[in-house]
C-alpha cells in the first residue's frame, strides 16, 4: 500500500475522500448545484420541517433553472413562516418566487392572503386589548376565554370591516 502512495495511486483515493468531505455550502460555492440538490433533497427527506434546507434547495433549484421546483420550495417555506406569524418573511419569499414565475397568478393571491392574515392578526391584537380592558372589569376573564370570544367574533362582518382601534373602543 505504501508503494501506491509513493507513485500516486493513493491520490485518487485522497481526492475521492476530499470530495466526500465537501459540505453542501462548499458544493454551492463550487457551483456543483446538482450534487448540492441531491444532498439537500436527502436532508429534507430525513427532516421535512427543516426550513433552512428547503430554502437552500429553492436557491439551488433557481441556479439550476428549475424554476417550478424553486417556486414550490419557496412557497412551502413561506406558508410555514406565515403559519408561525412571520408574515413579512412569508411575503418576501413568495415575492422572490414571483420573480422566478411572473405569470403565476396563484403567487399573487397567496401574497394577498398572507397580507390579509397579517392585517387580521394586528386587528386581533388590538381587539383583544379592548376585550382585556372590558374583562378587567369582570374579574376572572382568562386569556383563553378572551381567545375563544375572539374566535366567535372574527367571522362577523363588523369585526372584519372595522379597524383595530375602533374594535378596541367597541370591546372596551
Q: Report, as a whole number of angstroms, the end-to-end distance.
A: 84 Å
Structural class: mainly alpha
How big is the Rg?
A: 25 Å
- Count of DSSP H/I helices: 11
Low-confidence stretches: none
How many beta-strand runs?
Answer: 0
List the helices and strands in order: HHHHHHHHHHH
Q: What portion of residues is helical?
A: over 70%
On the 0 to 100 scale, the average pLDDT is: 82
Q: Largest beta sheet, briefly? A: none
Task: Describe the fold and architecture.
This protein has 172 residues and is mainly alpha-helical. The chain is built from 11 helices and no strands. The chain has helices spanning 2-6, 9-20, 24-29, 33-46, 51-63, 67-83, 87-100, 105-137, 143-153, 157-161, 164-171. Helix 6 (67-83) packs antiparallel against helix 7 (87-100), helix 7 runs antiparallel to helix 8 and helix 8 (105-137) packs across helix 9 (143-153). The longest helix is centred in the C-terminal third of the chain and has 33 residues, at 105-137. The protein is elongated and about 65 Å long. The model has no long low-confidence stretch (mean pLDDT 82).
Amino acid at each position: 500500500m505504501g508503494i501506491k502512495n509513493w507513485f500516486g495511486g493513493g491520490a485518487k483515493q485522497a481526492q475521492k475522500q476530499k470530495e466526500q468531505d465537501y459540505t453542501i455550502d462548499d458544493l454551492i460555492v463550487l457551483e456543483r448545484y446538482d450534487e448540492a440538490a441531491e444532498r439537500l433533497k436527502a436532508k429534507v427527506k430525513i427532516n421535512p420541517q427543516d426550513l433552512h434546507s428547503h430554502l437552500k434547495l429553492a436557491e439551488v433549484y433557481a441556479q439550476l433553472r428549475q424554476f417550478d421546483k424553486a417556486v414550490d420550495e419557496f412557497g412551502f417555506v413561506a406558508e410555514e413562516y406565515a403559519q408561525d406569524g412571520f408574515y413579512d418573511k412569508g411575503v418576501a419569499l413568495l415575492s422572490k418566487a414571483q420573480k422566478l414565475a411572473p405569470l403565476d397568478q396563484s403567487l399573487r393571491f397567496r401574497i394577498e392572503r398572507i397580507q390579509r392574515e397579517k392585517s387580521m392578526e394586528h386587528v386581533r391584537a388590538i381587539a383583544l386589548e379592548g376585550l382585556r380592558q372590558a374583562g378587567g372589569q369582570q374579574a376572572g376573564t382568562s386569556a383563553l376565554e378572551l381567545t375563544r370570544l375572539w374566535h366567535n367574533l372574527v367571522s362577523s362582518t363588523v369585526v372584519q370591516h372595522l379597524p383595530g382601534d375602533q374594535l378596541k373602543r367597541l370591546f372596551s
